[in-house]
Structure formats: C-alpha cells, structure tokens
Amino acid sequence: MNLAYLHALEAQRPQIRAGWEHLLRLERANSPLANPDTLVHLLDTTLNEIFLDLRLWSPRRRPSHLAAPACPCGRNPLLAYFAAGRQALHEALVVVQAAAPEVTPDQRSEAMACLDQVFSRIARREIESFCALCQFRPSPVTHAHDPADYGH
C-alpha cells in the first residue's frame, strides 16, 4: 500500500474504531458471544494486526481468494464482527482516497485490494479458528448440524 495512504489511514484509526464499534452495535447478536460489549474488546488488537500487516504488505503478494470463510451454522460471532470491520475500513480508505485526488484509479484499486487481502487473511484465520471449536459444526460422518452428535 502506498505509504501516504497508510499514514492517512492510520490517522483515521480513532474514526475507524468508532465506526467499527457503531456498525457492530447495529448488528443483531446471534449468541451471547456475539454481544457487541464482548466483541469491542477485540478491536484494538485486530486494528494493530491490520496496520502491521499493511506495513509489511508487498505488491507481489496476491490473494488466492478473497471470499469470506464459510461458517456452516452461521452462528460464529466473528462473522458480524469482521463484516462491520470491513465496512468501517473501506469507508475510511475511501475518505483517504477522496482527499488525494492526484492518485490514479489504479493506485486506488491497488490500495483497496491490499486492504482486502490483509483484512481477509486475518478474518479467515479468526473465523475458521472459532468454527473449529463450534459445537454445531457438521459431523464428519453425517454432515449434519446436530449438537447432540458431539460429546456422546
């Protein structure tokens, strides 16, 4: 990512955090773990990792795919958390880009692709880690979502 964009995006960190929290609080919690009061404690750590990864990103690194990880039961509290974060970061990057009219469309696209690649890698890792612990994951034998299949 262009260093000027990165610095401008880092300067937006308080607004990104506030926007992420606001969007998170708009989501309907699908479980006690999805309660925004619980998830907001992850914001600073996640933002730290995002900004560190953006600093280390290389244009030679290309994503294999940017699709969100699949959560078979849809109960993963991190789905809403990362959806809100992606939106907050996209909004902040658009604000940064709007303040730099001299930047070419290709540079804008590369910055958004970089942000998406970094964000998707982190989101995928965290969502898949949580899904690995889920009691509602499909049985390897039946592929059913029956929590009674686990632990018996």
Describe this structure in words.
With 152 residues, the chain is mainly alpha-helical. The chain has one domain. Helix content is 60%, strand content 0%. The protein is built from six helices and no strands. Helix 4 crosses helix 6. It is globular. The N and C termini lie far apart (50 Å). The relative contact order is 0.17.
How many whole angstroms does the radius of gyration measure? 17 Å
Question: Percent helix among the residues?
Answer: 55-70%
- Average residue-wise pLDDT: 83
Approximately what portion of the residues adopt beta-strand conformation? under 5%
Topology (elements, then pairings):
Elements: H1 3-11, H2 13-26, H3 36-39, H4 43-56, H5 77-98, H6 105-132
What does this entry show, briefly?
The chain has one domain (3-149). 60% of the residues lie in helices and 0% in strands. It has 6 helices and no strands.
Features:
152 residues; mainly alpha; 6 helices; globular
